[in-house]
Automatic annotation (TrEMBL):
InterPro entries: RNaseH-like_sf, RNaseH_sf, Tc1-like_DDE_dom. Pfam families: DDE_3. GO terms for molecular function: nucleic acid binding. Residues 48-108 form the Tc1-like transposase DDE domain. It comes from Tuber aestivum. This is Tc1-like transposase DDE domain-containing protein. PANTHER family: TRANSPOSASE (PTHR46564:SF1).
C-alpha cells in the first residue's frame, strides 16, 4: 500500500511468539466488528493450531470488536485457546511496539 499523507489508515497486526504473522491495512475506514470477524476467521484462525501446539492461543486486548462471540466460539471449537489482556494495560501488550513500527513504515 502506498502511503499518502492526510489519508487515514487502520492497522490490524497479528503477532506470533516469534514476531509478526500478518498485517491488514485499511485505507480511509475503520474496522468494524464484522470486518474484524472476517479478518480473524479467514486470515488468522486458518494459520493457528490446536492446543498444545505452537500458535494455539489467540490473545486479544479488551477492545469491543475483539470480544466477538463468533470469534471466541469458532476459535475454541478449533481447539484454540482465547485469552483477553487486562483492561488499560498497554505495558503488557506487545502489539503496542508493533504499532509504532508499522506507523514508522507508513510515514516513510
Amino acid at each position: 500500500t502506498q502511503f499518502v499523507r492526510n489519508i487515514r489508515y487502520s492497522i490490524l497486526p497479528v503477532l506470533g511468539i516469534d514476531g509478526s504473522l500478518h498485517v491488514r491495512l485499511l485505507k480511509v475506514c475503520s474496522f468494524t466488528c464484522q470486518s474484524y470477524e472476517k479478518f480473524i476467521l479467514q486470515e488468522v484462525l486458518p494459520h493457528m493450531n490446536c492446543i498444545p501446539n505452537a500458535d494455539s492461543v489467540l490473545v486479544m486486548d479488551n477492545t469491543r470488536i475483539h470480544k466477538s462471540q463468533l470469534v471466541v466460539k469458532l476459535a475454541t471449537a478449533a481447539g484454540i485457546a482465547v485469552e483477553f489482556l487486562p483492561p488499560y494495560s498497554p505495558d503488557t501488550n506487545p502489539i503496542e511496539e508493533a504499532f509504532s513500527v508499522y506507523k514508522a513504515w507508513l510515514r516513510r
